[in-house]
Structure formats: C-alpha cells, structure tokens
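Hi D.,

Good news: the full-assembly prediction came through. Inputs first.
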Amino acid sequence: MNIPNWLADIFAAIMLATAVYCAGRLVFARLRGRRVEYDTDLVHLLMGVAMAGMIVPDLNPLDGTVWKVVFAGATLWFAGRVALAWRGDERARLTLRHHGAHLVLSVAMLYMFVAPSGASAGSASSGGMGGAASMVVHYPTLALVLALFLCGYAVVVIDRTPLLVASGGTPRARDTAQEAPPGACCAVADNGQSQGPVRSLLAPRGANCCDIAMSVTMAFMLITLLQ
Amino acid sequence: MSETTAGAPKVAFTFGRANPAPRVRRTPAETRRLLQLALAAVWLLDGLLQLQPFMFTKAFATQIIDPTASGNPSAVAHSITWSAGIIGHHPVSTNAAFAAIQVLLGLGIACRPTVRAALAASVGWSLAVWWFGEGLGGVLTGGASPLSGAPGGVILYALLAVLLWPTDREGRFPAARPIGVPAARGLWLLLWGSLVFFTLQSANTGPQDMNAMIVGMADGQPDWLGAIIKHSASLVAHRGLAASIVLAVVLALVAVAVFLPPGVWRALIVLALVVAAVIWVVGEAVGGVFGGQGTDPNSGPLLALIALAYWPATHPTTEPKATAQQATGDLERTTS
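Then the structure:
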C-alpha cells in the first residue's frame, strides 16, 4: 500500500527545493563572505536529495549502500560535534541542542536506509514510500521515537523563528551574529570559537525553514514505515 | 615516549559537563508555552499519521469511522454514518483535507503570531472530530473505558486549547491562568471524575471485561509492547471487578488532587502522569500507531499534558511584562 503519487511528488519537490536552497546558501556564502554552517547545510543538501529519492525512486541518484555510508559519516560527524560541545565551555555548550538535533536527523536518515528489509528498501527499486508488501521494518519503536522527536523539534524551531522582520533587519540575526553561537536561536556559523570581526549570518530564518521542512518530511517518512 | 609524559598538559577525562550551568526556573508563561508546543507537536503528529497510506482508502471510512456509530443514540449514529459515507466516497480528497488541517493546526500553534487563531480553530475541529469521527468517544454507549480512550482523545485537544489559551492573567498553575482557579479545578474534577464513572460502568466490571479489552490490543504490536500488554492482561484476568475498583480509587484520588495542599497535589499529579502512561501503553497500545491505522496517539499523552498544566506553582506567578507578552504570542505587536 503506497501513498498517493501526488503526495509523494509534493514531498519530493519540497525536499529537492530544500536541497537546492542549501546548495545555494553554500555557494552564496562563499561568494559574499557570509557565515553559514557548512556542515549543516551540506547535510541538509544530502538529506534533501536522499529523501526525494526515497519518496520518488526515479529521483534517486545513488545506491542505498552509498547513502548508508554517507549518513553513517554524518552521524559520526555530529556525534563528534555534540561531544565537543558537551565538553566545551559555556559558549560551546550553547550549540549542544543544535548539534544534538542534527545528530538525531542523521540517525533518522541512517535508520530509514538500514531498518527496512525484504524489498531493497531505500533504493530505487523499493517502490517508493509505503514500501512493498514484503517489506519488513526492524525496530519500529525507534521509528516512532524518532518521529516524535522530529515533530517536537519542528515546532520548537518554528517557535524560535519570528515571522516578521523588525525594522533594521532580521529580528534576531544581529543579536545572534554578535553574541550567540550556533543553535542559540537560529542556525548560524562555525564552532563558536571565532575571533576577530564577526561576519553577518546568511538568512538564519531560511536555515530554520530548512530544518522545519526536513524534520516534518522525515517524521512523515518514519511514520510511513510503521505500517 | 608519549606526548603526555613529554610534558604536554594532561587532561583527565571525566564524564558529564565540566562546569554545569545553574538551573534557571521557568516563568509560568514559559511553562505554558512549552505545553503549547507539546500540543502543537501532537497535532503535527496527528496530521502526519493521517497521511498514512491506509487513510487514503475507503477502508478508513468503513473500518475506522463507521464502527464508532455503534451503540450511540440514533441521531448521533446517523450523523456518523452520514460522514463516513462522504469520506468513503471521496477518501483521497477528504483525508488530504483532514491531514492538512491537522498539520496546519500544529504549525499554527507553534508559530507565536498565530497561536490564538490556531488554538481557537483546534477547539472547533476537535469538537467536530469528536462527534463525527469518534462517536463522542463512546461516552453515550455505556461501554466507554479510560483504558480504551474515554472520553475520546480528541476532546482533550479542545480542553487543552482552552487551558493553554495565551493570557497575561496570573494563576496558581498554568491551567488556571485563562479561566481562573475555580473553573480550572472544576474541569479537572469533571475530567477525572468522568473517568471514575466510566471505569465503574457495568460493561467494564465483569470478571473478564478488562482482560478482554487489554489483550485485544496486543495483536500486531512490536514484541516488547505485545509482551507488556499480554502480561498486564494476565494480571487482571478473572479479577475485572477488583481491578476496576482499584483503578477507580486511583482516578478518584487524582480527581481531588487540585483541592489538596500543594505537596499532596504535586504527588497526585505525578500519580496522574503514571496513570496516563499506563493507559497509553497498556490500554491504548501507544495509540495503535504500529500497524499503519492509528489516526492519533489517543488519550494517554493528552492526559499527561493536562496533568502538567495543573502543576502548582512554587514561586510567585508575576513576571516581567515583556516576558509574559513574548510567551503569550504577542511578539507580533512588539515587532511590527
């Protein structure tokens, strides 16, 4: 039993748009000397492409095994960042929740490629989301736990993201750029140890919107695995 | 020779944070906002559950909606059958609309400028679903039980929307701020008192009634959950009346919690959280979400959220105006 094609297309389009946006952020930040979180945007780019390929198999450019390696690497990377933040000073610790959330996102991606079996799940032959009748999902409880976390994370990021722009610029961007390290409010740059003049953030609300889109779509895909 | 012995600074590895930050006590408005976000997350989860493949089939109407008409008064039953007919004829479009509404409610509550509108809309939507989708939670059928989700999970969304309504008013606990202490206490007593009533209905007190209700949820669950459910069912086998009385006493204690001194009150709120967890895991099988046919997480998590909204304050309820405004969704006014 699969989800309707039009619904799969919508989610795939959202994921591809998010991936393109993140790629644009990386290029634009390089060209204009603006700050972004390179690891987060790069992982969002990969997640967007991977999820679009899982939802609509024709869009999948890589084999499932490659994706497993990619997201295992991402998981290790963010686990390392969480460990450093945990062990770091007060400023570094402000990044803990932010990197922790991306650690969970990476784990969820890895889970979605590893957990299903029996129908080449996660690859182009799986028949898209909803899977084939013969598909078996290992550790479905983990899918529910991850989906619950992602729903919670999405609403928290929405809560932190002001809709309106105050006069003089993005409401929290200026404060965030000058004072807060990554994850304190919006997605921001490096590891909180930069010195010298602080470059302005590139569209922190846009980065937050990527987080929201990723979280909601990923939660949807995990829930679809529960059947 | 290692670097350490060569004179490099030696850093002893210790678990945990090197310098834990002091705990900061949340203001009542921040506490309420957290509860609002939890409610938003549940709405979002509801919407995503509604997007499961099964819900886009005619079976959603015939296997989920239509059966709730059974046992209800004819007027209610007819309205449910009528709505099931519409959904059955247009399963894709109606389900897409249902899912979109629920996702938007979740996103709307999470977004500060739209929190009031979304909460108000959630009350209307909850009441409609409670009637047409849940058959009033079975409260008029004589067979409703807290273990099976009575008085209906979705009506609890409406109650939470009222209790968590953004306001600058003060109160002894988050739920008292929008409606006042007496009304909040009355709603708490009504909710948990009704659970006592449902528990002691004759349909639930037979020797095997509770056992049958619980064991029926075990099929199709993950191993650990199935084992918990089956073990719990065996505990109440042939002891339906005694188990119902014990459950009713516990629920009655929770029902009077808000009229007792703060220390006992808090202890009974903790008991309410435990009861909600037991109901959710044992009676509702985590909302029946494993298997692809769960439309919501059922009443357990919502009972827990309601209980948290009644946690008595341990500090003065006044707070700086700016903090209260921001946490009550007034950011729109201050930034525009």
